[in-house]
Design a protein that fits this description.
Length: 158
């Protein structure tokens, strides 16, 4: 599948930088079926997990697995990309809650995360997104993420 957003374009949208940028590219962006609504917007995002990720040194020596908290953060970044569209003000997204989190399989070096995020609710300064991660077609992680949103400095209001 062809990239919709390259890594450079992702970095223009998300404020995160390495080692905390957990998105390599975006494969798909879908808009809401409801006019003028962000509810229903979705994204499919890729993160390639490499053996030289800094967290693998200590999590865990001899059995490297990606920490669950970073999987949640990666899904939150995917949700931010699902929410945003070109031409809209760039926003800050801060995790405000995590519901129904399930960690079904470990993520290890060499895995490619295919993250899916869909906006369920949009309430001015709060969103709710349904997210899951697949590796080789199998769901590894899922959660409903609540995020507080605010306009980035210099971006005006939203």
């Amino acid at each position: 599948m062809e990239k919709v957003l390259t890594n450079k374009e992702v970095q223009e949208i998300l404020p995160h930088r390495y080692p905390f940028l957990l998105v390599d590219c975006v494969l798909e962006l879908k808009d809401s079926e409801q006019p003028d609504s962000k509810v229903g917007r979705s994204a499919v995002v890729i993160k390639n997990v490499t053996a030289n990720e800094p967290f693998f040194q200590g999590h865990f020596p001899g059995f490297p697995i990606m920490p669950g908290v970073l999987l949640v953060e990666a899904m939150a970044q995917a949700a931010a990309l699902a929410y945003y569209r070109d031409g809209e003000p760039k926003l800050n997204f801060m995790i405000a809650g995590v519901e129904k989190a399930k960690f079904r399989r470990p993520v290890t070096p060499g895995d490619q995360l295919e993250m899916h995020a869909r906006i369920l609710k949009d309430r001015k300064n709060m969103i709710q997104a349904e997210c899951f991660v697949r590796v080789a077609g199998k769901v590894t992680t899922e959660a409903t993420i609540l995020a507080a949103i605010s306009a980035r400095e210099g971006e005006g209001s939203f």
